[in-house]
Amino acid sequence: MAFAPKACSLFLVVLLGVCIQLNGAQYIPGARCKCPGTIMHIQEIIDDFEIIEKTHYCDTTEIIVTLAEDGATRCLNPVGRKAMFFINCWNKINKDDNKKKRCLKRKAE
């Protein structure tokens, strides 16, 4: 009868481990995006930008711009005019970080 409590304890430990793994692996769309909210338009001068493609953590393309005035970051809505400009320019320069300034020099309307 000494075997039953040990087997039961082992089963509970294994079950607890499985539950912890499953809890950590939950997929919640948009939960790991860098941009909790976006804006459609921005008038400030943009110093830099970053485009983060869709991943299994975040189901939207994210466009993060850095403002020249104070270094603050803003997230652009990917369907906005300025965001589309950055996405198209980023694709034209073959996603080369060294050529990003070309996109910033062009006038996005």
UniProtKB/TrEMBL annotation:
It comes from Salvelinus namaycush (Lake trout). One of its GO terms (biological process) is immune response. It holds the Pfam family IL8. One of its GO terms (cellular component) is extracellular space. The keyword Iron does not apply. GO terms for molecular function: chemokine activity. The keyword Signal applies. Transmembrane segments: none annotated. This is C-X-C motif chemokine 11-like. Keywords: Cytokine, Signal. Residues 32-88 form the Chemokine interleukin-8-like domain. Residues 1-25 form the signal peptide.
